[in-house]
Amino acid sequence: MIAIPTAAILLGACGGPAVYEDESFSESSPYARRYPTDAAVTCIAARQVLLSQGYGLTEETNYSIKGIKAYQPDDDEHLTLELTVVCMDRKEGGSMAYANAVQTAYALKASSSNAGLSVSGVGSISLPWTSNGDTLSKKAAETVAKPEFYERFFNLLGKMLN
User: Fold this and answer.
1) Where are the alpha helices (H) located in the chain, listed in sequence order?
2) What is the DSSP letter of 33?
3) How open is the CA angle 49-73-48, to the nearest 5 degrees?
4) Each residue's pLDDT tens digit, 13-65
5) What is the C-alpha to C-alpha distance for residues 35 and 65, in angstroms, rounded to an integer?
6) Residue 36 — left, alpha, or beta (φ > 0 → left; ψ -120 to 50 → alpha)?
7) Hey, how many other C-beta atoms are within 10 angstroms of the C-beta on 96?
8) Distance between CA atoms of residues 95 and 85, nearest Å
9) Contact 95, 32 (CB under 8 A)
10) What are the phi and psi torsion angles at 25 (to 5°)?
11) pLDDT (tens digit per residue) in 101-141
């Protein structure tokens, strides 16, 4: 009986930092803003904000939109910034816009392979043809947590609504 709880504790310790412990779920959030317009109008303005800043739109509904923008800071690194906006009507009138951005980093990795041929009854033959190629491998993904980023987005959204 003691082995099961001990195993659970040991497995939990191997999982890395428990980032959820920092989640406050407070009423004040940099990811949301109220607007006097209805949700459909707010989302149209959010679409305009994303397009005006060079984002490509990847998903759209009347009440949500997702845009993506690519960056290449150097030859071996590629970054994407994906911004999701959801608009909801408020029962008191007006709407709420919720925004969430995720930055994903990719690294260039070299790979090579040799061609081989296997014939039943004869064996396998390794051929001297090689192919070298570079591929992008996902390195990291993280929610953008800087309130200033969302402040700039929501301020431009408010200007588009005026």
Assistant:
1) 3-13, 39-52, 147-161
2) E
3) 5
4) 556 677 788 788 888 899 999 999 999 999 999 999 999 999 999 999 999 99
5) 17
6) alpha
7) 15
8) 13
9) no
10) 50, 50
11) 999 999 988 766 555 656 666 566 555 555 556 788 899 99
